[in-house]
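Q: Give me the 3D complex with glutamic acid.
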Amino acid sequence: MTTTTTHEGESLYAAARSQFLKAAEVMNLDPAVRQILEHPKNEICVNFPVRMDNGEIRVFRGYRIQHSNILGPYKGGIRYAPEVNLDEVKALAAWMTFKTALAGLPYGGAKGGITCKPSEMSLDEQMRLTRRFTHALGSNIGPDSDIPAPDIGTNSRHMVWMFDTFANSHGGSDRNRAKALVTGKSLACGGSEGREKATGQGVCYIIERWATNAGLKPSSLSVAVQGFGNVGYHAALIASEMGMKVVAVHDHTGCVANAAGLDVQALKKHQDATRTLNGFSGGETIAPESFWDQACDVLVPAAIENQLTSARARRIKAKVVVEGANGPTTREADVVLAERGITVIPDILANSGGVIVSFFEWLQNRNCEHWELETVDARLLDLITKAYDKTLDRAKRYKTDVRTGAYVVALERIAQAYAERGIFP
Ligand code: GLU
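A: Here is the predicted complex, encoded as structure tokens.
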């Protein structure tokens, strides 16, 4: 079995489990609940053939890991990347359980993925891959049971293909209801205003709240962002619109810095045109590794897992790390950051804007409603701020770090549900 190991040699699922076990310890969680949450409820693995453009047939492996549904239908994204493996998807699924519980949503947690290289596949190939995967998952997913969404390597296009495939194979009166099968759809096909930018928007609401609590003006802050995909781009753009200075951006194509602030929209145009961040005329191209040495107040890792290692954690200059990605900080790095007095606002809180607005999209689909962007943003701000405040309260009450405080809030809700429902039969 392939596993995703951290730079410091640990499986990603083991790392995710250790975060939740720490909170379980601190709050003295019911051992039965702890035991249940240590394992995903269902691990679905499918192998299925897809016809490539050259006529060749290739078999792909896809996963859907359903971690918990004690609070509602399973919920979580679908990732397309070469590194996708069972261990990684299990970790990502568990994080969804805690993310939705912390945000107060009526959802459980799941994650899916296909091991593939979308950058080397045509749109037609991606469509056939997505439709065949949806078909292979069959009734394991559904608008009342398990609701997928975009993640790395997927976007609204893939979600619309999933919903269309599902609608066509679950006919009759279910056809219209099928819209609520997936979130993150395009506006024309039942998506929500503000969903695309939602994760980045949530990251920025969190930065604002942190700054206000610290007695700092958000507009006085400088921000460094790792990752320039959906989360990193929108976080950088919204931060700059809020008056913050985006002083460095780094992704797998390169790294640019400008102490006076980068023009994020111009940088995006440059990247779209040249397929690299390097060479952008509005900043200085620097060696990717020097990203971690840049002077900044806020560091937003918004790329992939395990980027902030203990060695990098010793070098960073930021006062706060706001995790836009899932699992960007290794367990060892968490220890170093705590020693250095650098606050880490954890993924399950910091990047929850995406799934919060997914919930709004699902509600709109079910009620045949359309909410204006102002309504979506205001409700997102309300939910994410409540989750943030509760997290800080628990961190203080249990004299622990912010990550553990966030898990405590999530586990309180889950434990309460188990206490009242009991275990069947
Ligand atoms: N993939 C996103 C995440 O990791 C969004 C999940 C969703 O909207 O269901 O939170």
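A quick observation: The chain has a mean pLDDT of 96.
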